[in-house]
Each structure stands twice: as structure tokens, then as C-alpha cells.
Write a structure and sequence with these properties.
Blueprint (H helix, E strand, L loop, with lengths): L1 E2 L5 E3 L3 H16 L3 H12 L12 H19 L2 H9 L6 E4 L3 H6 L4 E4 L19 E4 L5 H16 L7 E5 L4 E5 H16 L4 E2 L7 E3 L1 H9 L2 H13 L1 H9 L11 H10 L16
Helix pairs in contact: 1-2, 3-6, 4-6, 6-7, 9-10, 9-11
Bound molecules: zinc ion.
Length: 283
């Protein structure tokens, strides 16, 4: 287990501990013993494979933890990344742990959820609600942009601000439904990529890499709901306000460019819906 610098982040290789406890966790869930299930899950996520017989997984543990720390150093070396890292609530801990091959086969992406997640009374296997300490399921092959994205979620959870609101949008080709939290993480991820002079992702859901600032701005301007949520974050989320006032030279920064984007967005539709246009008054 490696603590990353002065940040409240612990990189913890616990793959084999998790695999060994998976059946037990599943059984507890099926038996409706959700409190016990969460207790075991919290123990597993905070235990290191170093405790397994004679530290037999030492090599793969070192490889994983060094690889993740090296990506965290890369994030720390980027102004946008450093802003995110520096704002995670220091009274909490972010646990970064690996996914198994089986889990990756099922879903080749990263996830963040609270360590002490809210239990769903209807028995649903949902761990995304709650706040405080977080667990990021992450593998280094996913790259630094994805890790930065998850750290934005961890930051929001750490201050009990993670409140996903559903919204849909179109990128000009397809329609997607996502949440406000994903849009925030996606936009900050793109500002980070732009600062690093890496290609941008067109929008959150389509995973189109290699987009330009103009293409990504076009998706924002063309979707009232996306503009609405950017405006919301600009007024209420410190990371967005900071980004707007700090990163003057970063090419992609819709928080900084919001006034221009909003003006362009208003031009795409009439201010008064046609049905409410005033009727001509008879002379
Ligand atoms: Zn996300």
C-alpha cells in the first residue's frame, strides 16, 4: 500500500484479497445481510495483498502500485490535475484499487463509489450513493485522463456534493442519457487533456477521442441541458469557478469561455417560443 505524497490518497493492491472474499460478499448480499456485506467490502478495500502468505504477490503488487503512482505524479505535474488533487477533502481517504480481469471483461472502465456507501433498501446492488472516503476501481492501462476523471468524482464525494441529476444530450450523431456529475468530470478531464496538449474526448458517452476544441464546444452549444448544467457548476462548484479564472492559456476551457458559448447557444433558438409570440393588435 502506497500513500501518494501529501494527498489523502492510498494506492492499494488488494486483488487477491478481493477475489478470496467475493463469494462471501455475494452470499451476504443474496441473504439480504447488507450491513455485513458492506462491512466486509470496507475491510477488503482497505486491506493489502501484502498480508497474504509470505507476501507472495509482492511483485504484481509493486508493479500496480508503482504504475498508479507514476500516473498520479503525471496528474500532479499538470496544473488542472494538481487543482483536483489539492481540493480532495483531507479528512477523507481515496482508496485506489485494481479491477480483476473478470470485472474488466464485464466493464473495461473505472468506477468510483463511497467506501461506506448508502445501502439500498430494495436490495439493489448499487454502491454509488453516499459520501466521505471513496474507492476508485482502476487499472493503469486506462491512462491518466480516466484517473483524473475518477478523482473529480472522489473530490465531490469527499465533500458530500455528489448529486447526480439525469440529463440527455445529442452529439449530432446519437442521443445519450448521462448525469450532471459525469458532465462535470468529463469537462474537467478535457480541460486537463487540453492543458497536457492531448486530444480531447468529444463528449462523455461516445468515447470519441481525438476531437478538437471546436467540435467539443459545438456539442455543448447545441444542447440546452449541457449549457444549463455548466452554468449551474460555474455558480456552485468551486473547481469550475477556479478553472474559469485560473487556466487562461489552456485552449479548451468552457468554464472560462462560458459567456461566448452561452451567447452562441442563445442564437441557436428563439428567445420566445413561437406559440407565445404576441399576436398583432387590431388597429
Ligand atoms: Zn465518471
Amino acid at each position: 500500500m502506497l500513500k501518494f505524497g501529501a494527498y489523502p490518497i492510498k494506492v492499494n493492491y488488494n486483488l487477491h484479497t478481493r477475489l478470496r472474499n467475493k463469494d462471501k460478499e455475494d452470499q451476504l448480499h443474496l441473504a439480504g445481510q447488507y450491513l455485513e456485506e458492506r462491512k466486509l467490502d470496507m475491510k477488503v478495500n482497505t486491506s493489502s495483498d501484502a498480508t497474504i502468505e509470505n507476501n507472495m504477490y509482492r511483485q504484481e503488487m509493486n508493479d500496480y502500485e508503482q504504475a498508479v503512482c507514476s500516473l498520479l505524479r503525471k496528474i500532479d505535474g499538470n496544473r488542472v490535475g494538481r487543482m483536483v488533487l489539492g481540493h480532495i477533502n483531507k479528512k477523507t481517504t481515496v482508496w485506489i484499487v485494481p479491477k480483476s480481469d473478470e470485472e474488466l471483461k464485464h466493464d473495461n472502465s473505472a468506477q468510483t463509489h463511497p467506501l461506506n456507501y448508502d445501502i439500498q433498501t430494495n436490495g439493489m446492488y448499487v454502491r454509488g450513493y453516499g459520501s466521505g472516503d471513496t474507492v476508485i476501481l482502476y487499472n493503469p492501462e486506462l491512462g491518466d485522463g480516466v484517473l483524473l476523471h475518477e478523482l473529480v468524482h472522489a473530490y465531490r464525494y469527499s465533500f458530500d456534493k455528489f448529486v447526480p441529476v439525469n440529463l440527455d444530450y445529442s452529439n449530432g450523431y446519437s442521443r445519450y442519457t448521462t448525469t450532471s456529475e459525469e458532465i462535470l468530470a468529463h469537462v474537467i478531464q478535457n480541460i486537463y487533456l487540453s492543458e497536457a496538449k492531448q486530444p480531447l474526448c468529444l463528449d462523455y458517452k461516445s468515447y470519441w477521442d481525438g476531437s478538437t476544441k471546436e467540435e467539443t464546444y459545438k456539442v455543448l452549444v447545441g444542447n440546452e441541458r449541457l449549457m444549463w448544467i455548466l452554468n449551474y457548476f460555474l455558480r456552485h462548484e468551486y473547481l469550475a469557478t477556479m478553472a474559469a479564472h485560473t487556466f487562461k492559456t489552456t485552449e479548451y476551457n468552457p468554464f472560462r469561455d462560458f459567456a461566448t458559448l452561452e451567447a452562441a447557444s442563445l442564437k441557436t433558438r428563439p428567445l420566445v417560443p413561437a406559440s407565445e409570440e404576441p399576436m398583432p393588435v387590431a388597429p
